[in-house]
Amino acid sequence: MTTISNNLQGVRERIVTACTRALRPSHSVDLLAVSKTWGPEAVREAFAAGQTRFGENYIQEAVGKITALQDLPLEWHCIGPIQSNKTALVAAHFAWVHSIDRLKIAQRLSDQRPTDLPPLQVCLQVNVDGGVTKSGVPPAQVLALAAQVAALPRLCLRGLMVIPEPAADYAAQVAVFAQAKALFDSVAAAVGPMAPHFDTLSMGMTADLEAAVAAGSTLVRVGTAIFGVR
Ligand SMILES: *Cc1c(COP(=O)(O)O)cnc(C)c1O
């Protein structure tokens, strides 16, 4: 086994263990492998070990990689900040976007999504712990943005994404993720009829995936524990 395939195995075991502790079925949490800064060969190795969903932060870097790996049936997720001048690239190359934090970006992605591709699957990024320097829509504005995004014709609203500040310990991590889960449930109830596929709570990374699973994450985004330290 290669290092990457060993690491992937280890991360899958962490997810299963966390699910068992939380009395959740292990298939209720999926793994997004965050391959930012790593080359196409690392992604090929992860694919050979069974991983098909990959997350990228930097649009330009990602497009090169996506193009180089077109022979593989991979699903690419944009998880980084998106500026207006990059929306056309994102709309053309990704299957998912987790980092929608304003209507203008969502509108452009919908307008620019190529007609030969299925709708772009999107999550709203929420600034759940109020970090002042962070991107993400404030919790109080999530519902309004969700209703607007759900109405865009070429987007499919799938859920919420959060990146909390590093917390002191496990209990503090769970507390923040639990706030995200409560918000997710209330948005799901409110926009349900408009967004029938609202099923994804994207939270948890290498350092805090156990806490995220305990609080209700459905998709953890893991880079370091799979590919190594960047
Ligand atoms: C880099 C990154 C990750 C992965 O973080 P690790 O700590 O390496 O697991 C997850 N989500 C986002 C948004 C990131 O930028």
Structure description:
- This protein is an alpha/beta fold and 230 residues long.
- The chain has a single domain, classed as Alanine racemase (TIM Barrel), CATH 3.20.20.
- It is 42% helix and 17% strand.
- It has helices spanning 3-21, 40-48, 59-68, 87-93, 103-112, 142-150, 170-191, 209-215, 224-227, and strands at residues 30-34, 53-56, 75-78, 96-100, 120-125, 155-161, 200-202, 219-222.
- Strands 7-6-5-4-3-2-1-8 form an eight-stranded parallel sheet.
- The longest helix has 22 residues, at 170-191.
- The chain binds pyridoxal-5'-phosphate (PLP).
- Residues 34, 36, 57, 79, 163, 205-207, 221-225 line the site of pyridoxal-5'-phosphate.
Q: How far do the termini sit from each other?
A: 21 Å
Domain count, please report it: 1
> What's the assembly state of these chains?
single chain
Largest sheet: 8 strands, parallel
Q: Provide the CATH superfamily.
A: Alanine racemase
What are the low-pLDDT stretches, counting only 5+ consecutive residues below 50?
none
What CATH architecture label applies?
Answer: Alpha-Beta Barrel
Strand content: 15-25%
Mean pLDDT: 97
Secondary-structure element string: HEHEHEHEHEHEHEHEH
CATH level 1 name: Alpha Beta
